[in-house]
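Why do we bother with holo predictions? Because pocket geometry can differ from the apo form. Keep that in mind while you read this record for dihydroflavine-adenine dinucleotide.
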Amino acid sequence: MSSPQAFDVIILGAGAAGLFAAIAAGQRGRRVLVLDHADEAGKKILISGGGRCNFTNLHCAADRFLSANPHFARSALARYTQHDFVALVRRHGIAFHEKTLGQLFCDGSARQIVAMLLAEARAAEVDLRLSHRVTDVSRAGRFRVETDRGGFEAPSLVLATGGLSIPKLGATGLAHDIARRFGLPLVAPRPGLVPLTFAGEALELMRPLSGVALDCIARSGRAAFREAMLFTHRGLSGPAILQASSYWREGEAVTLDLLPGQDAAALLRAAKRARPRAEPRTVLGSLLPQRLAEALAARHLPGPRMADLPDRALDALAARLRDWELRPGGTEGYAKAEVTLGGVDTAALSSRDCQAREVPGLFVVGEAVDVTGWLGGYNFQWAWSSGWIAGQAA
Ligand code: FDA
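The structure, written out:
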């Protein structure tokens, strides 16, 4: 067996967190090797944000992340902030805009973000090797990584292979497996930012409405999100639902307010007085998308005209519109999940540099860690921030 090539830092994963850790370590003069099994770096960045990459969020703060330790992300997010990343994007002349809720997107293409990262990595003399299959990782003083194209060793190893979401794009549980092998505990992974699926009566209502979108408040547990929701042929999706899905646990309900900020009972009663001859579906259609209005009127407002409906029928529908309790059967799983919740337990890592407390030289960053952001650029900011702090210490 040929002797392994020696580096100061080996990083597994050329995604957002791995590339950023590599850049930070390379800028400190460390000899950095990045290994990835994919044939292209940053594949998730390329498809993110509908191809425009929602690369950070102006309102980034630790309370927009889910983790068994809600304080863990604070140090990383403070040491490398959204403003630091925005400054980098500006230095590279990449035009961007705020779409909504502090979400920053490229005007052009996500490819510009990957090109920026690769240019920074080249300038920091990072050795990036794609299409390398990792076959073994061990440690005898230094870390040793075997691949189908040779062995490598270094005193520092950064696990940056992400979570389990979108296996089609090459996602694997490698970081989780290696962390476990070195004795680091895991918080059970599950899909996050994922469409919810339904069965029975609920699905019978939802399926024909596939494609209908509206503003709503989606609640799951104590979390509430006011954004758009979308009916799908399997249930519900759209930003509000994706956000709520990260807080949802099997067996629990989600509740929807389909007329946020409006008093539906008062509106329906007023319409009955003002337009007694109007059809219920027409009145509902002035408040909700027409196809949804028709489906709800057919089920809940029996009667050809508003005048035929007792107030209690209007009040009952209004209550449902404000507090529609639904029990998802499940989610669309890792195939459709934007992120993986859970991962390497933060209790085993230092929040200052994402280094394993009991395994000096081993770092875990990005989505592989039990830190998951809301929808809206938070997950990339965690990747940049956690990668950067690890790169300062590795
Ligand atoms: P990431 O998954 O980016 O990178 C992991 C790398 O490790 C990959 O290059 C992979 O090939 C490699 N790898 C995996 N297993 C390996 C193995 N066994 N051997 C070698 N290499 C291996 N977030 C956000 O903030 N804004 C957004 O707009 C979006 N949009 C979005 C859209 C879609 C469709 C998805 C699926 C996700 C998003 N996200 C997002 C989430 C975001 O993409 C995600 O949180 C980050 O990419 C995580 O960065 P990491 O570097 O941790 O993992």
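DSSP finds 13 helices and 23 strands in the chain.
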